[in-house]
UniProtKB/TrEMBL annotation:
Region (Disordered), start-end ranges: 1-26
PANTHER family: POLYNUCLEOTIDYL TRANSFERASE, RIBONUCLEASE H-LIKE SUPERFAMILY PROTEIN
Domain YqgF/RNase H-like: 25-125
Record localization: Cytoplasm
Species of the source: Botrimarina hoheduenensis
Main function: Could be a nuclease involved in processing of the 5'-end of pre-16S rRNA.
Protein's GO biological process: rRNA 5'-end processing
Name listed for the protein in its UniProt record: Putative pre-16S rRNA nuclease
Keywords: Cytoplasm, Hydrolase, Nuclease, Ribosome biogenesis
Enzyme Commission numbers on file: 3.1.-.-
UniProt main location, coarse: cytoplasm
Length: 170
C-alpha cells in the first residue's frame, strides 16, 4: 500500500468549518486485515448495517478496482475503517496499518474515511457464528464480514461519528 505512514492521528479540522454530513445514503464498513478484509454496507437513514462479504487481497491494482467498483455500485458516501486498539485505548501496530489502509482507500476511491473502535468485534462475531452451529470453515468465511457489520452498526448507533482517537473503555 502506498501513502505516508499515519503513526499518529492527523489533526482534525474545526468541525464548525465542515458542511453538515448527509443523514441519508450508504456507507461502507471495513474490518481491515492484511490477507482478508471484511466489508459491510450501512444505511444512514435506518441506522442498520449488513455484511457484504469478505475480500481476499490480491494486488494493489485489483484491490483498488474492487473498492472503487464497490463504492460506485453501492453509491457510498464514505468509509468507516475499524481501528484495532488496546484495552487502554492505545494504538497498536495493526492500528497504524488500518490508518494506512484508510489513507489508501481515500486516495483510490476519493471518499473520506472515518475510523471507529473495533475492540471485541471479531470475538463477538466468532461467538455469534458458533451459536449458529456453523462449521469452522463456514465461520472463517463469514467472520470478517460479520465483524465489519458489528463495527459499522456500532458506528451508526453512535450517531455516525468517527474517532481520531478512540480512547479507553469507560
Amino acid at each position: 500500500m502506498g501513502g505516508t505512514p499515519l503513526s499518529a492521528p492527523q489533526p482534525s479540522p474545526n468541525t464548525a468549518d465542515l458542511p453538515p454530513r448527509p443523514t441519508r445514503g450508504r456507507i461502507g464498513g471495513i474490518d481491515y486485515g492484511t490477507v482478508r478484509i471484511g466489508v459491510a454496507i450501512g444505511d444512514l437513514e435506518i441506522g442498520m448495517a449488513s455484511p457484504a462479504g469478505t475480500y481476499s487481497r490480491r494486488s494493489e491494482r485489483l484491490d483498488a478496482e474492487y473498492f472503487c467498483t464497490l463504492a460506485r455500485e453501492e453509491r457510498l458516501l464514505w468509509w468507516v475503517v475499524g481501528l484495532p486498539v488496546h484495552l487502554d485505548g492505545g494504538e497498536s501496530q495493526k492500528s497504524v496499518e488500518a490508518r494506512r489502509f484508510g489513507a489508501w482507500l481515500t486516495q483510490h476511491t476519493a471518499l473520506k474515511v472515518d475510523f471507529y473502535d473495533e475492540r471485541y468485534t471479531s470475538s463477538q462475531a466468532e461467538s455469534l457464528l458458533q451459536e449458529a452451529n456453523l462449521t469452522k470453515k463456514r465461520r472463517k468465511a463469514r467472520i470478517d464480514a460479520l465483524a465489519a457489520q458489528i463495527m459499522l452498526t456500532a458506528y451508526l448507533e453512535s450517531g455516525a461519528k468517527g474517532q481520531d482517537n478512540p480512547g479507553s473503555i469507560g
